[in-house]
Amino acid sequence: AQKITQTQPGMFVQEKEAVTLDCTYDTSDQSYGLFWYKQPSSGEMIFLIYQGSYDEQNATEGRYSLNFQKARKSANLVISASQLGDSAMYFCAMREGRVTGGGNKLTFGTGTQLKVEL
Amino acid sequence: GAVVSQHPSWVICKSGTSVKIECRSLDFQATTMFWYRQFPKQSLMLMATSNEGSKATYEQGVEKDKFLINHASLTLSTLTVTSAHPEDSSFYICSASRGLTKNIQYFGAGTRLSVL
What is the CA radius of gyration of chain A? Predict the structure, then answer.
């Protein structure tokens, strides 16, 4: 089974509208972390937001928020007030297990290509 | 600003030559760095975990003799693609974790390798 599933290969949204990018995950670990990254056409991976499995509140970072539904194992990214510069590929990723000192491997989903239109 | 620097951003080489890619953590020490490979319009595939002062840990199916990783200092890891062939053409990107609480991985800008 896929550990990270992003079912939307592509999404369109109008400028200034909100958009939700879906992500479901599969793990048997109690401790894990969920990440969203943005990859513009330049290729760089830009960290957007993080949600820990024990975090009770949904994470928010500016226009980005993470709709964390633990029982459903979903971690959807919500982008409010979309801007043209938000057009990019978005990846959901998961760290399984507790945080280690050096760093933990991440498993990435297949990504969602978001296009913001005027 | 970028906390992880990757160089070069783009390289073209002849088949049979070796190419070295550098990944540096700019303002923090990284005992562990990660190397990924990404094919066009696909996700990132972890190739190996680079550990400072010890051997890298390679993912299943990744040839360690083809992709040599050296992590000689706490701020530098290098990936050398040895005897490159056209099928090695890809986008290679590194990352390093900063801090313990969330262990967020910060990525370099990536290297586009084209082997002719």
Answer: 14
For chain A, the average pLDDT equals 94
B76 Cα to chain A: minimum distance (Å): 14
Which residue is closest to B101 within chain A, CA to CA? A99
Chain B residues inside the 8 Å CB shell of A49? none
**Has residue B115 got a pLDDT over 80?**
yes
Mind spelling out the 3-state secondary structure of A20-85? EECCEECCCCCCEEEEEEEECCCCCCEEEEEEECCCCCCCEECCEEEEEECCCCEEEEEECCCCHH
> Which residues of chain A neighbour B107 with C-beta distances below 8 Å?
37, 44-47
Q: What is the pLDDT of residues A21-66, one digit of tens each?
A: 999 999 999 999 999 999 999 999 999 999 999 999 999 999 999 9
For residues A12 and A54, give the distance between their C-alpha atoms in angstroms, rounded to a whole number. Answer: 32
Residue B115: Cβ-neighbour burial (10 angstroms; 0-12, 13-18, 19+): buried
B42, B97, B108 ranked by CB distance to A103: nearest: B97
- Interval B46-63: pLDDT, tens: 999 988 888 899 999 999
Bridging pattern class, strands B57-58 and B44-51: antiparallel
Q: Hey, which bits of B1-116 come out as E strands?
A: 4-7, 10-13, 19-25, 32-38, 44-51, 57-58, 67-73, 76-81, 90-98, 104-107, 111-115
Coil vs helix vs strand at B88: helix
